[in-house]
Amino acid sequence: MSDITAIILTKNEEKNIRACIESIKDLVCRIIVVDSYSDDNTVQIAREYGAEVIQNKWINYATQFQYGIDNGEIKTKWIIRIDADERLTEKSRNEIKNLCIENEDTDVNGIIVRFEVTFLGKKLRHGGIYPIKVLRVFKNGIGKIENRNMDEHIILESGRSVIIKNDCLHCDYKNISSWIDKHNKYSSREAIDYFEKNLDSEEKNKLVFSAKIKRYIKYNIYYKLPMGMRAHLYYWYRYYIRLGFLDGKEGKIFNFLQAYWYRFLVDAKIFEKKKEPSDKEV
């Protein structure tokens, strides 16, 4: 085991938590599950597999993750964030372990991991979805999470990050109804971030390159397009230009839901908010 503490955020993840913990238990010396008062067997399973469980009322991912850092009394050199529906493979686990050991006393303070997404049992390799690159491992006291409602990223106060070569897995075993329910909640939080527009903060310059580019495109190009057009163009870009159709029926469903359901739902909630009377009109 390495000098790493894992933080996992959960809410009714009994279908996922077991496999998640199994994938990291040989890497980390401590596992903290920050649970949002699950009403299934998530907490029981997590404790059976050796995790420490603390509970906190849900606000958003950023607040919940920060709660784990602030209340977990973490003493390890490194911290890794992993979601319940994510898995490390043997190769990615060993690579992360070696990078943490090699960079214990260097200016490498963060590790960017790669994720391969599985949807309806299909590994998605096209449509611009592969690989997803996010900073998930960082030195204790140097990394922190952005205070955002959605699309939050870990940023480094100093030093640099490196990216692993081997893929980790994102494989949610829940059904489409659960996907829709989760993304309905995502859309509400993303609409809030749209209006708050906390994009000029000093923190944005500390994002890893891929996150910085993605956010720039979203707020300076995508949201500048007409509401009725942008979800349509998003689908065409993902499905045709980025070859999402090569992922078969699963790719068709995934790209359609992402564009014409999720992205359009965000737009609809933004539109709804803009139509609400201002305080002066009430």
Write up what this structure looks like.
The chain has a domain at 176-275. Helix content is 41%, strand content 23%. The chain has 8 helices and 11 strands. Strands 1, 2, 3, 4, 5, 6, 7, 8 and 11 form a 9-stranded mixed beta sheet that branches. It is globular and about 50 Å long. The N and C termini lie far apart (60 Å).
- What is the succession of H and E elements? EHEHEHEEHEEEEEEHHHH
Q: Bin the strand percentage.
A: 15-25%
Structural class: alpha/beta
Number of helical segments?
8
Rg estimate, integer Å: 19 Å
Share of helical residues: 40-55%
Q: Name the overall outline.
A: globular
Mean pLDDT across residues: 92
Strand tally: 11
Report the end-to-end length measured between terminal Cα atoms.
60 Å
Largest sheet: 9 strands, mixed
Low-confidence stretches: none
Show the helix and strand layout.
Layout: E1 4-10, H1 17-24, E2 30-35, H2 42-48, E3 52-55, H3 61-71, E4 78-81, E5 86-87, H4 90-102, E6 108-119, E7 122-124, E8 132-139, E9 143-145, E10 154-156, E11 160-171, H5 176-196, H6 209-220, H7 227-241, H8 248-275
Parallel strand pairs: 1-2, 1-4, 2-3, 6-11
Antiparallel strand pairs: 4-8, 5-11, 6-7, 6-8, 9-10
